[in-house]
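User: Teach me something about this protein's shape.
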Amino acid sequence: PWGIELVAFGTIAIAFIGWLASLRIPLSPAPSPELEINWNSATETVRNIRFSSQNRPVFLSLLANSWFWFYGAIVLAQFPLYAKDYLRGDHSVFVLLLTVFSFGIGAGSLLCEKLSGHKVEIGLVPFGAIGLSLFGLDLYFSSLAYVNQVEVDAWKFMAQTGSWKIMFDIVMIGVFGGLYIVPLFALIQTRCDPKHLSRTIAGMNIMNALFMVVASLAAMLMLKQGFTIPQIFMATAILNGIVAIYIFSVVPEFLMRFVAWLLIPTVHRVRGIDIDRIPEQGSAVLVCNHVSYMDAIVIMAYSPRPIRFVMDHSIFKIPFLSWVFRTAKAIPIAPAKEDPWLMEKAFVDIAQALHEGDLVCIFPEGKLTRDGEINEFKGGVMKIIERTPVSVIPMALRGLWGSFLTRDKGNPFQRSFRRGPFSKLELIVGEPQAPEQVSPQQLQEIVKNLRGEWK
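Assistant: First, the predicted structure itself:
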């Protein structure tokens, strides 16, 4: 009794609470007040998608976002029949599966903030994609192992052998879905031109709807071909892996950030200081002291956006790290006496990168320190800003000296053991310097002061 009334009252109450919460959203001026509503939905749809496709990384992120809706639409659409025919459950079992999945999405979304260090960490996207495929496959095997011949409600279902394994797979699909979708949405909002943001999001919603329609058609086709629902879960998980490989191959920044995000926290406890001084948009030259072979990866892991690193060609060729640096579009450089052509090409590539609005990071010492002290800064930075006058942002790494990949004397394994696991280090970002006020000596002094006595 009163079920319909309670549902109606609850819906209105939640909507009212949401409206009250929206009143606390700060007002912001319209970035394009001259825009007018186009009542022709067809032309406006085409225009919105065209806006979305102008920025390639953003557009591919939109596609990756829409793919999640494809994945979710297929999986969620199977839950009613899956609960009834395979789990032998009543409607309460279907509601339980939806609740578990929703809880997973919420938990994964909240977990993003903790794992990302309060910044847009797109390295979580491959992590989420891997989890979606792994637990989608495991849901297939868990479904095969579940045996029940009598109809059960939610409570009796949870008492069945194998039921908790199925619920665990579903909640983990939700968790990894949250880890996948939240960084993508944040990336789209931060990388998109503010004047086009609303239209880009409108285009994204249109693509989401299209992908969901295609997902429904794909599910119908698989069922018509004789696929069981667990087999649909398996096929979707495999297809998700294939799509993820494609996305991360055309936008390697995702995978590169994933490697950096995974590698650095497993070795060090890094504290970033004044990282917000690295601009979210526009070009700049970052300069930093050179302590270890991992310097670029540490900076890469804690920068809010991609960086083009200029590095010695010998470091650029180190196995495994070479793949990371190539993926990050690093620029190899060599001394003029060793390879004048490569040196000149590096400066041309740097100018082009800055012209395109990229961040470029150089290590002005030109070599790794052999004693932990900062070597003399070379004049390459002056040549860069003479060609392309942009702000120069000094940075300092400290706490890395003596780690495995430095040139400290002694056995590297003994050094690492002496430092202990998860040794501390810091990345400190200084105030941006105007190009007309920059000199190598001045930058060296700033970096030295930022680093302090801790090597």
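Now, about its shape. Residues 144 and 266 are 36 Å apart (CA to CA). Residues 56-86 form the longest helix (31 residues). If you'd like, I can walk through any region in more detail.
User: That's plenty for now, thanks!
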